[in-house]
Specification:
By secondary structure, this protein is mainly alpha-helical. The protein has one domain. It is 78% helix and 0% strand. The protein starts with a helix and ends with a helix.
């Protein structure tokens, strides 16, 4: 639960972002348009032409793809904002050390940072929702509702990646994280095609990934479709990742910052 002091740290994050937001314009505004135009409309026209009446889950490819990309993008946003910025706060800029010289404590830093991540992934999801309405024939209500599970997905990854970052001594582990975890999840967790099309040995692995649950929830919310498993189980699964990540982030940061 946010505390008045954690809100102060969040306020500091927002003040910094007010001066640096231009650096995220491409990832927040331009990527949704490019991805949905290129992958959804460009490649999608070939997919729809090749499948004919047997379209993916009975949908135009761009309509199937858009909610998955929303969830995958919030995953990337949450992970990105909880990796190098956290490393900088601990090791390079050391603004975490400066914050700890005030009445702020470790819990406040973690909750304040995750509050900032929550705003970032929600805004990213809202931008994607607008693009979905324009390009993917998704209803306004469905697109707006899809922002909720997409933001939950981003928060689950944000908390876990923050916890992981507190354990690192240098940035090499972050590069490995994105190369061997985030990118494969982006490709093989149901974003671009149903995981049922994966090899039999990979399918259970895909179901175990938090991004698959986020994609399922986001797609179901956007398109009013059924989920493979009860939606409440996916919500709980993502919630467990978020809570566990938050607890581990507090413990990891306390070991780094409290002597």
């Amino acid at each position: 639960m946010a505390t008045p002091t954690s809100v102060r740290f969040l306020e500091g994050q927002l003040r910094v972002y007010r001066r640096t937001w231009r650096g995220s314009v491409i990832t927040t505004f331009i990527n949704p348009v490019f991805f949905l135009t290129a992958m959804g409309l460009g490649l999608g026209s070939l997919v729809d032409e090749g499948t004919g009446s047997a379209t993916i889950e009975g949908l135009a490819y761009v309509t199937f793809l858009a909610p998955g990309l929303m969830a995958a993008t919030t995953m990337q946003t949450g992970a990105g904002d909880s990796s190098w910025p956290v490393m900088a706060g601990i090791k390079w800029i050391r603004n975490y050390e400066a914050a700890m010289s005030t009445p702020l404590r470790v819990n406040d830093l973690v909750l304040g940072h995750l509050g900032f991540v929550a705003l970032r992934v929600t805004f990213t999801g809202a931008v994607y929702a607008a693009v979905m309405i324009a390009l993917a024939s998704v209803s306004v209500g469905g697109a707006a509702l899809a922002v909720v599970p997409a933001a939950l997905t981003g928060m689950a990854f944000g908390a876990v990646v923050m916890a992981y970052t507190t354990m690192l001594d240098g940035p090499e582990g972050l590069s490995s994280l994105f190369r061997f975890a985030i990118v494969p999840l982006f490709l093989f967790s149901g974003t671009f095609f149903p995981v049922s099309q994966l090899p039999d040995w990979m399918e259970p692995l895909a179901y175990a990934t938090p991004l698959w649950h986020g994609v399922e929830l986001t797609r179901a919310a956007a398109l009013s479709s059924d989920t493979t498993i009860p939606a409440v189980l996916s919500v709980l699964y993502l919630g467990v990742w978020f809570v566990a990540g938050t607890v581990l982030a507090v413990r990891g940061l306390r070991k780094r910052m409290v002597i």
